[in-house]
Amino acid sequence: MKPDFPTRSALVVSALRYRDESVLGYLLRLGELNGYSSLRIIKKLISDYTNTPLFIRPSIVSKSEVVAAIAKLANIDEGELMQSKWKTINSAAGRYFNVQGTSLPLDALMEERAQICPKCLEEHGYLREAWDLSGVTVCALHKIALIDICPDCKKPLSHARTPMTLCSHCKRDLRYIPTEQVSDQEVTLSEYFSALAPYRIKIADDGLSRSQWTQG
Ligand SMILES: [Zn+2]
Ligand SMILES: [Zn+2]
């Protein structure tokens, strides 16, 4: 018999969220732990609570009702998960999010494509929130450049991946793709972004700079 997926109840298998895990990554991981091989099911689980469609983007964490739904599904403390919420700020300068106390413009966030450290994914098996910041371009732990393009199909990595270890387009296992070493200087600069230090991210006009920043 085909099992129904639960409606408005906690998932059978839960897990605690890692301190630096992205909320979207946490949701994807919960789905995997419960054996859901389709994002359609994950979207339905959330929309049963929120009554609105769920878009698989890092900014789901800016919506209180989505964060509350994830807490209910995971059967964890809602107030604690809500502390990770990004507050949306609409200003004349455009759309900003308050991420852990720092205001970041929408284009400083990886909304349209994902980036990962293959080695972190292999060793730890979860998605770090810092990877959702476009100013973070290297993994300080492994001193390698983060990957945002699949080396096989050359398509940008999608956030909508299940399992999260595979390219959603060609199913290449992202844990074992070639990586590129970076300099200590690049690691240091990227750590400023990871820590969300009180600096304003300046995206270079040519889009090439890996780690340019200005004091806010
Ligand atoms: Zn890493
Ligand atoms: Zn691919």
From TrEMBL:
Domain of life from the UniProt record: Bacteria
Residues in TniQ domain copies: 18-146
InterPro entries assigned: TniQ (IPR009492)
Name of protein: TniQ family protein
Species the sequence originates in: Herminiimonas glaciei
